[in-house]
Design a protein that fits this description.
single chain, 154 residues, alpha/beta, Rossmann fold, 4-stranded parallel beta sheet, globular, protein-tyrosine-phosphatase, hydrolase, Tyr_phospatase_low_mol_wt
Length: 154
């Protein structure tokens, strides 16, 4: 089983949105027995909380389930348990590297999945309020990640 972990700061906006969209796409592609998806945050402020209301509203609008998703904090054990660790911005990337001493081959910057896009980090809608923009990025990036996984691991 291939495992994917999306990482953002608080695990209530970007990474749970990515987790929900990726789960939805994995299911639609019939890959549930091949790909496992989770998310985590580098901070501990929201542990146990559901996704942010803006994230839930955007996922509801697109009929993407977020059932069972609760915020948790990234741990060094995650590095050993996941094949792909996808960080939403440079701060998350640096925090994961610092915590794990991680070799970069497991780490992906989310926007590297979308090289044609001008943004190099996923904006945090907790601060920007732009959940639509983040949804569109997650939709395209998760599609690109499935193609990457298929070419590299399946």
């Amino acid at each position: 089983m291939i495992s994917v972990l999306f990482v953002c700061l608080g695990n209530i906006c970007r990474s749970p949105m990515a987790e929900a969209i990726m789960r939805h796409k994995v299911s639609a592609a019939g890959l549930e027995s091949s790909i496992r998806v989770d998310s985590a945050g580098t901070g501990d402020w929201h542990i146990g909380h559901e996704p942010h209301q803006g994230t839930k509203e955007k996922l509801d609008e697109h009929q993407v389930s977020y059932e069972g998703i609760r915020a948790r904090q990234f741990t060094s054990a995650d590095f050993d348990q996941f094949d792909y660790i996808v960080c939403m911005d440079d701060s998350n990337w640096n925090n994961v590297k610092k915590l794990t001493g991680a070799k970069e081959e497991k780490l992906i910057k989310f926007m590297d999945l979308l090289p044609e896009h001008e943004l190099r980090e996923v904006p945090d809608p907790y601060y920007t309020g732009n959940f639509e923009q983040v949804y569109d990025l997650m939709e395209a990036g998760c599609e690109a990640l499935i193609l990457k996984i298929r070419s590299e691991k399946l």
